[in-house]
Amino acid sequence: MDESRRRFLAAAGAGIASLAGCTAPRNGPASGGEPFVDLYESVSPAVVRLRVYDSLGVLAEGSGWLYDDDVLVTNDHVVAGAETVRAQFANGDWVRAEVLGSDPYSDLAALSVDPPNGAAGLPLLDEQPAVGTRVAAVGAPLGLEGSLTSGVVSGVNRTISSVRNFTISGAVQTDAAVNPGNSGGPLLTLDGEVAGVITQAGAENIGFAISPALTERVIPALVETGTFEHSYLGVRILPVTPLLAEANGLESARGVYVAAVPTGSPADGVLQGGTESVTVEGSPQPTGGDVIVALDGRRVDTTGQLGTYLALETSPGDTVSVTVIRDGERRTVDVTLGTRPDPR
């Protein structure tokens, strides 16, 4: 991090290096009560402000939350490059936290911590929240610990690009106004269940959180081994647009187009990448590649559905049946999945 950036963070009073966050829900209280007051009182002991240091001083700030009695969850990008991490609990106590493991592909990290009395883990929602569900983002935006913003789930099963430029599937969208420093904090239902781990803001009134399902897969592995192995199909893909569908003689614009199959990848010799291109309405379109329309018999219409299935339903070493349209014919082939290469 250059010196000018450090001066900016110091001037902000927060030492924030992360640009991630989520947007904040704006619904009022339910009739007959103040549900967000009750929610905050019940969950605030489990939510922390994180301050991350390297050899030159404050590197970043963010948020986190207790997954169980001694494990904190936050974002990978919050603790990347950390030499020391400190967590501030709702009672004001600062304690040291140790990074147990982190995963840049899901933007999740697990930390070991000794919390104060009365701080207990928050449960993860066991399914994707419904669009319209009232939620709250609790954390430390701009270093302001103990902050809550409220709103709704605006969308689910979003495919987003992480702060470190990796694709994350199945993300939860919210209108909760999230700011730098909210990264890693919980997006909570009114029942106090974690509906997602805040990762970034997309635009005004649009923010994103990592799904509870992906969090539940990744965090236990980070605690146990320090890493998480993601399934790897080994293809370069494109969405099937109307123009691409026309160029390849498809009946409808659905599925996932295989643009290329790198040599030595799990799909090498099994799936077929594009070989040529044609121009449709003035736009060059690739042709000759397989179009994936199902995995293990489950329909695949979008790149997001493909990514979500691989992330949540498979593991490296699994053999999946891939149904494709090739040269106008439908066929099914088997691919044994590899492990996604470590980007570091």
Automatic annotation (TrEMBL):
UniProtKB keywords: Hydrolase, Protease
One protein family per Pfam: PDZ_2
GO BP terms, alphabetized: proteolysis
GO molecular function annotation: serine-type endopeptidase activity
Family matches, as PROSITE patterns: PROKAR_LIPOPROTEIN, TAT
SUPFAM superfamilies the UniProt entry points to: PDZ domain-like (SSF50156), Trypsin-like serine proteases (SSF50494)
Domain PDZ per the UniProt entry, residue ranges: 232-337
PANTHER family, A to Z: PEPTIDASE S12, PROTEASE DO-LIKE 8, CHLOROPLASTIC
Annotated protein name in UniProt: Serine protease, S1-C subfamily, contains C-terminal PDZ domain
Organism per entry: Halolamina pelagica
